[in-house]
Structure formats: C-alpha cells, structure tokens
Amino acid sequence: MKAIHKDFFREISKSVSRYLSILFIVALGVAFFSGIRATSPDMKMTLDHYLDQTEYMDIRVLSTMGLTEEDVRAVAALDGVEAVEASYTYDAYVISGQEKHVLHFLSVPQMLNSYDLVEGRDISDAGECVVDRYMVDKFGFQIGDTLTVTAPADDDLSDHLTRETFTIVGIVTSSSYFTVNRDATDIGNGSTDAFVYLEREAFATDYYSALHVVVRGAAQETAFSEKYDATVKQVTDRLEDIRAAREEARYEEIRGEALSEIGKAESELAEAEEEAESELAEAAEKLADGEKELSDGREELADGKATYSSEVEKAEKDLSSGEKELSEGRKELRSGEESLEAGREELEKGKKELKASEKKLEKGRKEYEKGLQEMASGQAELESAEAELAAAAAELQKNKELLEANRKELDATRQELVTNKKTIQEQKAGAEKTVKQLAEQESQLQEQLAAAKAAKKALEEQINAAETPESTEQAEGGMSAEALAVLKEQLAQAEAGIEALEKAQAEVEAGKKAAEDGLEKLDAAIAQIDQALNDPNSELNLGAAALAAVEKELAKGESEYESGVAELKKNQKKMEAAQKELKKAAGDLVSGQQQLDAGWAEYASGESLLEENEEKLRDARAELKSGESELADGRKTLEDKKAEAASEFSKAEKELAEGESELAEAQSEYESGSRKASEEIASAEAEIADAKEELEDLDRPEWYILDRGKTGGYVEYGQNADRIGTIGCIFPLIFFLVAALISLTTMTRMVEAERVEIGTLKALGYSERQIAAKYVWYALSASLIGSAIGLVFGQKFIPWLIISTYMILYPNLPVILTPLNLYFSLLSAGAAILCVTGAAYATCHSVLRETPAQLMRPAAPPAGKKILLERIRPLWRRLSFTGKVTLRNMFRYKKRFFMTIFGTGGCTALLVFGFGLTDSIGGVVERQYDHISRYDMTVTLKEDTSEADLAAVEEVLHASEAAEGYALLRQRLLEIDAGRVNYSAYLTVPTDPSGYDAYFQMADRETGEVYELGDERVIITEKLADLMELVPGEEITVQDGDLTATFTVGAVAENYLMSYIFMSPALYGKGFGQAPVINTIQIQAPKASEKELDELSEEILKEDAPSGTTTTEYTRSQFARVLNSLDIITLVVVVAAAMLAFVVLYNLNNINMTERRRELATIKVLGFYDGETAAYIFRENILLTVVGSALGLILGKFLHYFIITTVETDVIMFIRAAQPHSYAYSFGLTCLFSLLVNGIMYFSVKKIDMIESLKSVE
Amino acid sequence: MKEAAVMQKPFVQMRNVVKTYRMGEVEIRAVNGIDLDIFQGEFVVIVGPSGAGKTTVLNLLGGMDKATSGSILVDGQEISTYNSRKLTGYRRDDIGFVFQFYNLIQNLNALENVEMAMQICKSPLDPAQMLRDVGLGDRMENFPSQLSGGEQQRVAIARALAKNPKLLLCDEPTGALDYQTGKAILGLLQDTCREKGMTVIVITHNQAIAPMADRVIHIRNGKVSETRVNDHRVPVEEIEW
C-alpha cells in the first residue's frame, strides 16, 4: 500500500468522530428526505396492491329500481369492460340484547370485490353467513351465533330474504371496506354498523342491487394515478351512453308487470261481489222464520200466567178465615188457664199456712213434755241432797272427838323430851370441867420438860468444850476428865428425867382425849333432842301440824253443811211454781189440735175442685192444636203449587230469551257480513285505483355510475397520501439543506486544517489530483455509506411508521409496501454526495492553488479587528469586558456564526412547525364544531317533500325531549364553476336568517365580528374565498339545479371544514325567481347523549319525508380521527428537529473548540478555572443559540403557514397560526438542546492540555 | 541587596523533583531528581539543550503540571501537593507567564489582552500603565496582528506583570524574535527585575544569555548539572549571539 493510502486510512481512524459525524449527518438528511417523500407513493401503492389482489371493481352501477339480467348483459357487452358482476344487497336490523344493529347484507362475490377469511370457514349453504370483523370486535358476536333478521318498518322480510336466521361461520375482511366506515343506508341513523355476506340463494329479490365492473387494463395502472383515471373514464363514458336506454327498458318492464296485476285484481273483485250477494239473501230468509216462532211462544206464556193467578187468590182467602177462628179459640183457652192458675196459687198458700200451724203445735207439745221430765229430776235431786246433809253432820261429830285424843298424847311426849335434855346438859358440864383440869396438867408438864431439856443442853456444851483440844486452852481453868465424867453423869440423869416427863405428858394427853370424846357424845345427844323438839319434820311436830289441818277441815265442813241446807229450801220453792205452769200448757195443746184438723179438711175440698178445672182446659188445648195443623197443611199445599207454576214460567221465558238472542245474533252477523263484504269490495276497488294511480306517477328508474373516485374511503385515502406528500416536499428539504451545509463546513475545515500537510505533499511533488484524492475519498466514502444507511432506514422505516399510524383508519390493509423508491433515492443520495464531496474537492482545489511555501507557513490567524458595534462608542463602553470579548468573538468567526444561527434557527422553525401542526389540525375540529357549526344533527329531506310530511317531522321534533330547537333550510352541495376548475360548496338558505346564528356562526376570523345575513348580499366561507380569490363586493355565480344566478359577496366568514354560501330566502327568491324548497333540518340537542340522538334519529326516519340523518358528533369523530392521525408526523418532526439541533450544535462546537484550542490553553495557563474557560466559549454559543432560535421563530411561523396552507385540500382550511405556547416550547426546547450540547462540551474543555499553549502556531 | 538575598531563605526551592510521562508502553523521565534554590528578586536563567527537561521544570514551577515525586516550595508554599484547582489559583495569583509565541488573544487589542489577565487576579495593576511601562503607550488600541513580534512580546510581558505576580516565568522569550528585539525584551525583563524586585526566571537554550543573570542553572538529562552565581553580570547591551 502506498504511503498516501495509508495516510487516508490513518486520517479516518485519527478522526473517527468527524468521519462518523459526516456519515451520520448525511444518513439523517437522506433518510428524512427520501423517507418522507417516499411515504405518499408507498401509501398509494399499498392500497393499489390490496385492491388489485382482491379484484376490486373499478366502477359500480346502482339503480333506483334495481338492475336486471338484461342490464348485466348490456354492460358486459361494452368495449373495455373486462368483467361484470351483479350483487344483491339488503339493509335490515339484527337485535342482540338491548342493541339494535343496522346491518348491510350482501351476496357473496363470485369473482370481484372478494373478501379474505380471517377466522372460521366459508359459507356452504344459504343458512350460513360470514361477517364483518366489527361484528366480533365491536358487538361481541361469535362464530356459531345465529343472526335473526328484522325487517325495517313497512317492509316485508320475505320480499327480500328467503329466511330469517343465519348462522355465522366465518369472519372476513373486504377490500370494499378497507376503511373504518360502513355503507350509508336509509334506515336507522343513516349508516350501517357492519356488513354480512349471504349466499345468493338467500336473497328473494328478483332484481340486482348493484353491478360491479372491472375495466380492462385498469389493474395495471396504479390507483390514484392519472393513467388509471383515464382508463376508467373511457368505460364510464360508455356506460353513460347506454344508461338512458337501460333506464327506459327497466321502466317499461315494471310498468307492464303492474298493469297485468291490476287487470287480474279487477276480475277477482267482480267474482267476489256476486258471491257475497247470494249468501246474504239466504241469511235474510232464515232470520224471518225465527222471528215468527218466537212471537207464538210469547203468547202461550201470557195465558198460563193469568189462570194461575186467579186460583191462588181463592185458596189464600180460605186459609185466612180458618186462621181467624183459630186465633179466637186460642184467646179463650188463654183466659181459662189464667183463672186456674190463680186458684192453684190460693190453695197452695192455705196448705202452707196449715203446715206452719202444725209445726207450732208440735213444738208446744215437745216443750210441755220436757217440762214434765225436768220436774221429776228436780224432785230426786232435792231428796238426795237432804240425805247427804244428814251424813255429813254425823261424821263431823266423830272427827271432833278423835282430834281431842290425839292432842293429849302429843303434849305428853313433849314433856318427856324436855326433861331428858336437862339431864344431859348437866353431864356435859361435868365433862368440860375434867377436860380443863387435864389441859392445866399438860401445860405444867410441858414447862418441866422444857426446863429439863435446857439443863441437858448446858451439860452437853460443857462436855463438848472439854473434849475439844482447841477449847482446852480457852477453857477456864481447864476441865478435868473427872469433871467431865460428872457432867456426863448429870447429863444421863437429865435425860432420864426428860424421858419420864414425856411419858407423863402422853398419859395426860390420852386422858384429855378420852374426856373430849365423852364431851362430843353428849353434844350429839343434846342435838338429837333439839332436833326432835324443833324440827318441823320431826314426828312430834308433824303430828301437831296434822292435827291443826284436821281442825281446819272440820270447820270448813261445818260451814258447807250450813249452806247446803239453805239451798235445799230454795229449790223446794221453785219446784212448786213449775208444777203450776205445766198444768196450763197441757190445756193449750188440746185446743190447738182441734183447730188444725178443721183446716186440713178445708184444704182437701179445694184441691179436688182445682183438678176438675184442669181437665177441662187440657181438652180445649188439644182442640186448638188440631185446628192449627190443619191450617198449616193448607198453606203448604198453596206454596208448592205456586213454586211449580213459577218454574214452569221461567223455563218458558228463558226459552223465549234464547230464541230472541239467537235471532239478534243472526241479525248482526248478517249485517256485519254484508258490511264486510261491501268494505272489502270498496278497499279492493281503492287498491286497484291506487295501483292505477301509482302506475301513472311511476318514477323513471335512475342509474348511478360510480367510479372509485366517488367512493368516500378511497378518496379520503388518496387525500391523506397527498397530504403526507405535501409535507414531504418542504420539511425534509430544510433538513437536508442543513445537513448538507454542516457536512460541507466540516469538510472545508478539515482541508484547511491540513494545509501544511498539503503543502508538504505538494512540495514533495505529489500531483494535485493525488493530494485531493484523499479528501475527496474521505468525503465520498462518508457520504456514500451515510446515504446508503439513510436510504434504507429512511425508506423502509419512515413510511412504515407513518402508514402504520394510518392503519387506525384503514385496519384491513394486509401489508404495507415500502419499496425503495429509485427516484427519491437517487435524488437525495446524489445531492448529499455531491454536496459533501464537492465541498471537499472545491476547498482542496482552492488550497492547492497556493504555492507549497505559502502552505507550509502557518496560516496567519484571522486578524482581530473592530466590529461594527465598536463604532457606537457609548454602547460599547457600557459593555462589560466579557461582553465585549464575547461579541467580538461571535462576529469574528463568521462562518460559525451563520451556521449556528441557521442550525438553531432551523431547529426552532421545525419545532414550531411540528407543534403548530397539532395546533392547526387538532384545533380545527374543536373550532369548527364548538364555535361555528353548533347544530347536533342534520336531517336531509327527500326532494319535493309535501308540507304535511314536513309538519309530521316537525311534530316529532316538538315532541322530542332531546331536540331543543331546529332550523329549516335549503342546503345543496353545488359545483361552483371557477373557469378551469370547479369547487364544491354548500348553498345554504335558512328560512329564518336572523335566528340562524345559533346554528352556524358567520363571523370574521380575525376580528370576531359577527355578520348579519342581509337580503342584498351572500356570505361565503374563507376557503372558498381563498380558492376563488374573492373579496367582498365581487360577484359569484351559483347554480341550483337548472337555475343559475349571480350574487354579490357581502362578507367572508370563518370556517374550516367544507365551504358554504349563505343567503337569505328573500335573496334566493330574488336571484332564482322562486322560493327555496326546504330540504334540510338542522337540530340542536346539546344535552342529548349519543343514544338519545340515535333514538331521535330513528323516530325521525320513521316519517316519510326524511331520506337520512347525520349526527354532528359522527362527522366530528370522522374528521377527528383523520386529523389526529397526523400527530405522528408532529412527533417525527420534533424528533428530527432535536436531532438536527444536536448535530448542528455539536459539530459547530467541535469545530470551534478545535480552532481555538491554543487560545483556550493560554487562558487556562493564565489561571482561568475550568468553569470560567467554558463560560468564555459557551457564552458565545448561548448568545448565538438565542439569536438563532429567535430568528427560527419567525422562520417557523412562515414555514408553518406555508406548509399548512399547502396541506389544505379544497374542502379543509386549517387554523393558520400556531399557538403561543407552541412558540414557547420550540424556543425552550432549542435552548435545552443547546445547553445539553454545551454540557457535553464542558468535558472537552476540561481535557484541553495547557501544554498546547507552548507549541508553536501551526 | 544581593547580600541580603543570600542571607534569605530560598524563594523557590526544588528538592529531588522527578517527573515521568507515560507514552504508551514507554516511560519517559523528563526530569530526574532536580534540586535547585532561587532567591527573591533574582534574575535567573535556566539553560540546557533541547530535551534536557527545561520546559518540564517550567511547567512544574508554573503549576501547569504536577511532579511525580519530590517537593517544590514557592514562597513557603508546598505547591507539589496542590490539586488542580489550587494550582489554577496559584497560576492566577502568583505566576506571570511569558510565552515563546506570545500567545496573545488575536481577537483582543493590546489593552484588552492585558485587561483580560488582570481581570481574574486579586491585586491587579493598571493595565494602561503597564503598557506604557513596556513602551507601548501609543499602541494600546492595536490588535496583535497589527503589532510586530517584539511588540507582541511586550504586550505579553505587560499582561504577565499586570497580575502583579510573585514569580515571572519566561519560556524562550526571545525564541521567536530577531536579535535586536530579543535583546530589548531581555533588557525589559532585567529592568523589571531590578526595578520591581520581581523574581524572574528565564528558560532558554541560548547559552549566551547566561552572563546577564544573577544565577545560572544548567540542566542536562533531567538533572541540574551546574548552578553558578554570577558575580560579574554583563549588561544586556554587551551580550551577543
């Protein structure tokens, strides 16, 4: 390898970051440019591919009265028609739970518009169906469920379908329904909820609903392309040519059918009339017979009733006379009984009296007998008492005698005792004297004894003293043994004396004792005698006491005896009085008995009389009873007879009544029969008349030839793609330009930095080309690789991302095609490579023009010089030193200055555009539907709706709680001829222009001034004014149907979606020469829920006048969905802007740092801290960012305005200005990016080596 | 004055200073045990051939680099232990630097270049006066590109002195200048030293300058090979090379 090649690779590895940054910038620029540009064709291609794959039709033919086999053949025969397929459709309800779904039933396609089975299996018989994915996703149906179809009101299901129920066997998607929208319908709320495919056999209609046509050669052309449109147009033109003939044929066919039917009905009617008449006559005859029979029966009954009443009268008379007699007898009997009762009572009273007398008498007798008895006992008692008294007197005498004897004996005993006592007392006194003597003897003896003892003791002491040696000395005079012996002898004598004394003493004592014993015995004897004398218990005393008691008793007995005698005498007197009384009582008793006997006899006679009378009465009663029973019998017979007669009568009457009601029934039957017959006949006649009339006004069938361009979803898709395309025109271009500029700067810088090396090489003799090759290759390789990466990434990923977002709207698109687009690839890659490489070569070339000597000398550093600001002295002086330095540095590096401003400005502008896109597009829906269009529902009426039908709808609205108000208007979508092109706009003529403000606010967008709809000029909306370049005062030509008129524009009103021309009814009348026909109702129901609106819509659609309803909410959501999907573009833009900011700022900073490395090192050596050093350089960056960003805001405003107005279609105006906060965000974000880059750069500042400052200038 | 200096403690003292750089696998000892003493107010010339380690000594003394080992004392401060922030403070307050290539900010005029340096230090001197002192009183408004090399170097010296540093370090101050201008610059430095009592250290490979110094320090292979106190100073005018 040559050294110069080595140098090339080493250059890359030495400056990897620069190489990569060029590569990356190029990749980014190319990716955004080609990616966003390719999105629009990719979108179209994706749809085209899908439609071709499913054999989607190019043209659809519909007819107001159906299409026939003839029509199919006629269309198929046309030149350029490749295939025709007819299909059946029917819109009906399926109710599941609470929900009522409006479904579009259509026949299974044979070839065209085929569907893809997503789940389950395909249909195999007429009882099965495959359904829209929505049926499962939104409404919860499952494979295997059965759908039961309900026909809309005034429609017979059997006219349209052969069966009512269908089983779901599969779920499908169809290219006919690749958007989220489903078919419109004239039932329910105006749109169907989902589609259902049925076998062709399931349809009962004998005509087709639609024809689908595929144009030869159209599939080869891409959808939306001009070639495609041209190819299809040839066939639509041919279809237009045959349409009139086909319409006429269909008209005749229908008319012929109807006529034959009417004829048939008329003949049937005549037959029926005849039959009815004969039947009626027969019935009338029968009725007359019945009536006669009934009147005979009635007569008979009256006769019977008369006989019966006379007989009953007589019987009743007899009965009443018998009754009278009987009651008289009864009265007599009652009086007899009464007198008898009185007699019996008297008798009874007498008997009672007698009984009482008898009792009294008996009592008297008993008393008398008792008195006699008492008398006798009293006599006996008296006698016994006399005897007792005598006996007592005798005993008393005897006892007195005995008592005297006893007393004598007792006194003798007492005398004896006293004597004995005296003797003893004397004996005792002698004994006591003896004792006294003895006691004296004793005391003498004792004294002697004591003296003897004392003598003895003295002797002993003497002896002892003698015998003891010690004492010997002391002993006076010394005692000799002889003295001692003497002493001892004396002692023995003394002892004998004592002994004798003691003996005497004992003898005295014994004597004393004997004396004392005797004394004691004497005392005892005395005690004994005392006791006998004094003790009451002693025999003596006892005897005395007894004697006294006896004496007392004796006295008592004597007094008793005396009282007994007195009593006896008293009793004898009483006895005599009683005897007298008794005698008198006996006499009374006898007379009483006599009286009683007489009374009893009287009583007996009275009783017998009473019995006689009773007998008589009993007889009379028996008689009465028999009379009564006779009478009762008579009455009963009468009643029985009566009942019998009554039942007979009622039976007869009932029979009569039955006969009558039967007759009446027959009559009414007859009447209703005849009425019905006549009614039926009348209605049949009317029907026939109606049919005839209808046939008279039979509408001519009308064909609709619809190409894809008249299919909502297809057109909308195309518009979305075009919108992306428009955005792709401008925004990536800016990006691309910035990227190119950056890489260009980088390359230039690189070449200039190596001028010494270039000079050396040149000096060494390398050719210019060889030297330049290095730099060109460097640039070329970086931009080539970068472009390749960018192309692949950009064209694969970006369209995929954007189309994926649109999949929300087009869920059925099976694959997204993102082929590499050759045109955009070449364009973007070519431009990028050319820019970068060209820059490298150009710089190189200019450098190489210098001589080697010049090159090898260090390039003079750019000279410092005064900047413009310095010339303004007062201002310059006021600046701080750092301010001056910053400003001068800023303006010194001009390239960097402009690049930074351009980069940050571009970033800010992109951000403004990105955020503004959301403001403009997202805000449209809100602005349009919250501030401008204020109605909630639109009802479209059939053309030539009668006033009565309109009134019926109004009535529904008045009755509805949901609807708060409504406006009647004429509204038609018109084509406004503007020379080469046509613009569509709604002609809107409110019947009440003054109150219409509440439904649609016409106001100036900028000033907010509300415009009045006057009678002189029309008001048009802004988009239309822009398109036609109209200003107030200019004229506009409007065509309503066949009428054309020109009006003056009075004002331009704010509006975003669709275009409108408003005029008052008066102005309409003036212009078109006739009053506006009302065909639209706008309803305000701000508080109604979605469900309530649906219900209201259903109510309205039941009426004749409406042809459909649309809720504003529905339209709103349609738009909102489309517009919100653009959010992803905003995100892409914001991310792109951020990348741009980073790339630009990082690169420029990097260059700046490299260029000023030596300066920074010097500053560091001078003692600047890292922070100060960074601030020294970043201050410039920040200032540049702020300036660039501020300029970017202005640039962004224009960019945003430009893109927004470009993106607008003919029917949409976006909000042209971004919100203030979007500007704030953009500015803030740019500054944030700048700060981030500076933050990263701070570390590079830190790494700068101070040694650099010592090096020489290169 | 000179006697007094001898009596003093050294103003700058380097003891056994070693500095090694790693270049990939290779370890280079730029300075290998330097010992030197410099006294206050001296005009010192450090001489030695290229690669001897003069610049490393200058970097170490100027606080632009840190020694691998050994101690460096400046005015009693052990700067060898300073961290990078303290070193920055040391550079901004205590050191004046004169570069071989002047290193003026191209975008600032003479006066502004001086102002920039004094702006960050604690006790700056009047920048205009400094410029007048170096003889550029009438060129203050000129940008570096409008000045000759010598004039630029004067601005650089004014910038260094405006900070009122303790030590003036000059890296080959005459290296980029012609003979006459070089001599003038040296004269300016010497006058500064004499008149302001500033300690000035001039690093050069030019042996001829040595005779005008108070003290000459020879460096060879990363070591001090000789230190000589010059008793017979030759006036600048007599020096030739």
**How much strand content do the residues of chain A show?**
5-15%
Largest sheet: number of strands, sense, barrel closure of chain B: 6 strands, mixed
Q: Kindly report the spatial arrangement of strands forming the biggest sheet of chain B.
A: 6-7-8-3-9-10
- The outline of chain A comes out as flat
By CATH, the superfamily of chain B comes out as P-loop containing nucleotide triphosphate hydrolases
Largest sheet of chain A: 9 strands, mixed
Tally of separate helices of chain B: 7
CATH fold category name of chain B: Rossmann fold
Number of strands of chain B: 10
Question: How far is it from the N-terminal to the C-terminal residue of chain B, by CA?
Answer: 30 Å
Distance between the terminal alpha carbons of chain A, to the nearest Å?
29 Å
Overview of the molecule:
The complex is a heterodimer of chains A (1258) and B (241). Chain A has 1258 residues and is of the alpha+beta class. Helix content of chain A is 69%, strand content 11%. In chain A, the strands form three sheets. Chain A has a nine-stranded mixed β-sheet with strand order 16-17-15-18-14-13-19-12-20. In chain A, strand 13 (965-978) and strand 14 form a beta hairpin. Chain A is flat, with a radius of gyration of 81 Å. The model of chain A has no long low-confidence stretch (mean pLDDT 83). Chain B is of the alpha/beta class. Helices cover 30% and strands 27% of the residues of chain B. Chain B has seven helices and ten strands. In chain B, helix 5 crosses helix 6. The longest helix of chain B is centred in the last third of the chain and has 18 residues, at 179-196. Chain A binds chain B through residues 860-865, 881, 884-885, 888-889, 892, 1158-1159, 1162-1170, 1172, 1250-1251, 1253-1257, and chain B through 55, 59, 62, 64-65, 85, 88-89, 91-93, 95, 97, 99-101, 103, 105-109, 112, 115-117, 119-121, 143-146, 159, 163, 171, 176.
